[in-house]
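User: Quick sanity check before I run a bigger batch. Here is a single chain. Can you write out its predicted 3D structure?
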Amino acid sequence: MGGLRRLTASFVVSGPCGVAVRDRLKHLTPQDERVLRAVGAHQGTLASRDLKTRCADGLEHSGDTWAARKRDLTGVSSSRIAGAITKATHDQWALARRCQAAHIQKLEAGIKTLRHRLSLPLGEKGTKRAAGGYRSKNEWFRKSRRLAALEDRHAAAVADWQAGRVRVVRGGKRLLNTRHHLTEARLTEDQWRERWEAERWFIAADGESGKRFGNETIRVTPDGEVSVRLPAPLAHLANARHGRYTLTSTVAFAHRGAEWADRIEANRAVAYRIHLDTERDRWYLTASWQRPAVQTIPLETARARGMIGVDTNADHFAAYHLDQRGNPIGGPHRFGYDLSGTTTHRDAQIRHALTRLINWAVRAGVAAIGIEDLDFTPEKTREKHGRRKRFRQLISGMPTGKLKARLVSMAAEQGLSVVAVDPAYTSLWGAQHWQKPLTTPHRKMSRHDAAGIAIGRRALGYPVRRRTAPPPHDRSDRAGHRTAQAGPGDRGREGTRPPTTDRPPGGPSPSGKRKREPSASKTVWDAPSTQQWVHDSLMHTG
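Assistant: Done. Predicted structure follows.
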């Protein structure tokens, strides 16, 4: 293999373990909105206070400190609300720790690249695997200063990691910084303040199996009636028994509504969250619950009916249908999307493209979709790609993590599995072995289409290349025939091809008519002119 890295084995991705559905709370009265705002502001303050305490504990956190925090919150809310707040605090702290570790990894990658390039002579050319030296003394000096800055950041980040310090902003750091750029964001101060407060509210409750309709704090009946258990300081706002407030709005989950109804009628746990979309001035209710772990099918079963190979690009999915032997079927398929604009728009574009892809895979009759196991986390640094700003923006804009999670979830609903493959050399080898042979006057093959074939073949367990090396020119029988793409137990897989008739070369056919002997081809993989080769269908699949 020379300098090529070792490829990791393909595997079937585990199925989804959770479900979330959402519906709008329509026709809320002004009193309903005032109560929801009061509950969100009160519990949001408690959540902020609890998060501050948890961050102060750092690595000294224990079960006793958790219980103490929960007791403090119970007196000003309720036991269930306190449990939901402390659990959300722990999840947020753990997420901050994972982000901190990723930040340290990114700094280490940048420092390593800078040190390597600074150690090279000026003007030394780089290779495909490593960048070369800097072009001038001025650039070398500026990069040396950047190295010092990254080392300082790395030292500070490592010190925070060892001490257990994390920095979390409830409401989001991006929204916080928007306060200083209201003109660019096209927001007034009052609009930003409303959005900031809404993001910091907390109106959520975890489900409880065995309780009525699966949740005691936020209860939704099978008829769609929504009621909220008010915290102790707001109990005077209740309009129902036991300190509850019933909203005038009802919900009806169009998506997975039957599954949701089965759960609440069986009193199984369902978590709810109520939030306000300030841009649209709409209230929403989100229901979520866990599913039993989906058992992944064996890799051989996923390969039994062929594969759909999908190449992920900045603006489209390039997909190709392959049979179980790795042969392309039909032409390439492209499913475009536009990742410009807001986050909501990008998410919708990805969802629509995946919907079209999955529907086509179902019609094709395959059992699995092959996709690259992409992760650009160590590839986004300025030091690795230098002045290639557009390329860095390209890989940074590709939603690899969200894409894989959404594809797995959507494919599972249609009974499809997802096979993840090593992304190494798929575009290079696909273009080398498949782009030109499949290009016809009526079918244009791009590099991305050929990469889809390479990904599909790798998911099926076959090499990317189209066929094995031809036999020697001097004597074809010395090395045998090309390896046919067939199962080990198939007859004639490596055997000698039988002649078409028993007549001698140039002799009469069984019908009595003399046929012209075919002339030898001048291509390098055919046999010499004295040897007749039968055009067997298996030879196209190697």
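Residues 492-498, 500-506, 518-542 have pLDDT under 50 and may be disordered.

User: Great, the batch can go ahead then.
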